[in-house]
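W.,

You were right to be curious about this one. When I first looked at the sequence I had no strong expectations either way, so I just let the prediction run and decided to look at it fresh. Below is the sequence, 212 residues in total, followed by the output.
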Amino acid sequence: MKYGIFLLAYLFGSIPSAVWFGKLIKSVDVREHGSGNAGATNTFRVLGWKVALPVFIFDVFKGFAAVKLYVWSGVHFPNPDLVMIILGILAVAGHIYPVFAKFKGGKGVATLLGVMIALAPLPTLYAAIVFIIVFVSSNIVSLSSLLAGFSLPIVYYIMCSGNIGFSLLKLGFFIFVFLLLIYTHRSNIKRIFEGTESKIYFSKKRREKNGK
């Protein structure tokens, strides 16, 4: 039954935390409001940080736990890196197309973050710093996610190339992640170039000032 970890990874990713937390705490389905995405960003826009924070943490954990299933389960495959990458992809696919929420989920950024933490903790930290810098400058989550995703394979190569733990599979996966972010954020990219992309302000004063 060792192949069952692949199904578990997808099922982990399919847990629709934004939908369940939104309904449990506020009796609101976030997919019916805002951008319609079942993710932490839209949860923040619709229901505020008190609901969005546990959603974000849980979504990150989903990705992390899916990858770590390989270690925790004690199973063995000839190529552990490939198996863990597949587990991560399945978790993200589950988040985007959740079987528990009629296959209508979010964009997978937080779940991807959990996958990255499990695969390459330190490069992911630097990518997270890029996210924070861009977000503080722009208040645009989608732009911050895209640039963080762009930076990850570059940072991974610079930090790990030539080391024993360096993996071409991981590098290729990180490039794939960036391409996936472009695909899932294609409508956001269009709005960024049009100057109409939504911004998020944590300060109530700034939200009121900008009509949010």
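Here's what jumped out at me. The CA atoms of residues 14 and 99 lie 6 Å apart. And, maybe more interesting for your project: Residues 120-212 form one domain.

Coffee later to discuss?

I.
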